[in-house]
Amino acid sequence: MRVTGTGHASMRIDTAAGSILCDPWVNPAYFASWFPFPDNSQLDWESLGQVDYLYVSHLHRDHFDAAHLRDFVAKSATVLLPEFPTSEMEDELRELGFTKFLRAPNEQVVELDGGLKIMIQALTSPTDGPIGDSSLWVEYDGVRLLNQNDARPTDLGVFAELGHVHAHFLQFSGAIWYPMVYELPAAAKTAFGKQKRERQFDRTWRYIDDLKASHVFPIAGPPCFLDDALWQFNDIHGDEGNIFPDQSVFLAEYAKVGGDNGVVLLPGSVAEITTTGCTTTHPVPVAEFFAGKVAHLEEMRERKRPIIEAEKASWRHPEIDVLKEMKRRIEPLLEESVYLAKGVGGPVRFDLVGYDGESVESIVVDFPEKQVRPYADEKVRYRFRTERALVEHLLYVDEVDWVNSLFLSCRFSAARIGQYNEFVYAFFKCLSRERMQYAEGWYDEHERNVDAEDITIGDWVVQRRCPHLKADLSRFGIVEGNQLTCQLHGWKFDLASGRCLTSVGHQIRAHRADAPVTAD
């Protein structure tokens, strides 16, 4: 099996029975904020796109690059389609010209022509990607590969049961806006960023240890930030709280926990994987490339500047009445929302900075009252501050997912009262009737499906499944004193009270192991 690195989470897998192109991303994403690093735009995409199969793990725009898929990927390719709860991915791919689809039953091995086997695991909670994320397992002639990309399954056992995996591709770096955009003192922001960075690595080590593959390939990050306004997010400033470490940092941190089987793929690197080893060739020496990271980024910044400026020029739509359009789009969804609206539990404010960079229009999405209205000088749970032009553009293009656009762009600042509230971001990910209905149904089923099984961790008996997204706490749970941390997403719980310390709601069932059991 030959794997060609094509940047970020993208790779081309070649076997004698066929080729698979995964997650090709080249064009800037999220309001021209994210670019692939190392740069992959100068690869021979005319050739790389001539494949038998296309696999797109999910709709995040650093994985689903519509323009690139349209222009460079053969429309004769069969799309390996995850079993997602909505038809959005298939609909968008059909609009781009793809006509051949293999709808892979979830977690079932499918044998393709020539003995090539695949299995796709689809994750389907409202917080998994844009309504879904997935991983791809591939086997040919005894060689097995898992492309986990940035999916976060609760259990890799379904893959391990199919036989020893020889190549494990997974995320290790950040792909979020926290804590950089929060209006916090610098010291607090650094401390939170350091915790986030450590959690990212801890989760990666857990996945690696679970699968025990022959070779580990760090992928799906980090992006780079080439706009001058976002340049500080690149991990080149000696900031221990930066959440975007690169592949060279991964190798160094992995070595600290005894990892010696890491393999880095640059764009254009080729790994020949067999049941007994892995041989890799690179376009330039890996260590030499990352030693020159700053120079590479500076050269990219100048080369990509016209692209960024052209995108910025397209965002303004002064003809749009933002308040009127937000009311039209959002109020019907608020009326349909039960679980998400209750979960948010208060008003959320958007401060929109005008074209002059100073004037501000403040609009409130009032979840309890189910209305969008001008800000009335009240306390709010969350406050977002961003350019009016960005929201104008979201409304102009009828964007159904403000997470997969505005929030991931990091082109905003945020403040909140109290804990993180996942329902805020879940709601703004579901600005269509189809998504809202699915999310409400999922939370309804999730809330009614109480997990009765208990496990013992240290001195505590706790429910086996994390109240957040059902991670198996026998594998991901760590207890220190009276506090439990679920390492899958970093959520923390006070075991004495059962209270979630990370977000509102999500009570955990727990008691000390030596406590007397009382009958109900």
TrEMBL record:
<dbReference type="InterPro" id="IPR057330">
    <property type="entry name" value="SCP2_Rv3818"/>
</dbReference>
<keyword id="KW-0001">2Fe-2S</keyword>
<protein>
    <submittedName>
        <fullName>Rieske 2Fe-2S domain-containing protein</fullName>
    </submittedName>
</protein>
<dbReference type="InterPro" id="IPR036866">
    <property type="entry name" value="RibonucZ/Hydroxyglut_hydro"/>
</dbReference>
<dbReference type="Pfam" id="PF00355">
    <property type="entry name" value="Rieske"/>
</dbReference>
<keyword id="KW-0411">Iron-sulfur</keyword>
<dbReference type="InterPro" id="IPR017941">
    <property type="entry name" value="Rieske_2Fe-2S"/>
</dbReference>
<dbReference type="InterPro" id="IPR036922">
    <property type="entry name" value="Rieske_2Fe-2S_sf"/>
</dbReference>
<feature type="domain" description="Rieske">
    <location>
        <begin position="461"/>
        <end position="501"/>
    </location>
</feature>
<keyword id="KW-0479">Metal-binding</keyword>
<dbReference type="Pfam" id="PF25451">
    <property type="entry name" value="SCP2_Rv3818"/>
</dbReference>
<keyword id="KW-0408">Iron</keyword>
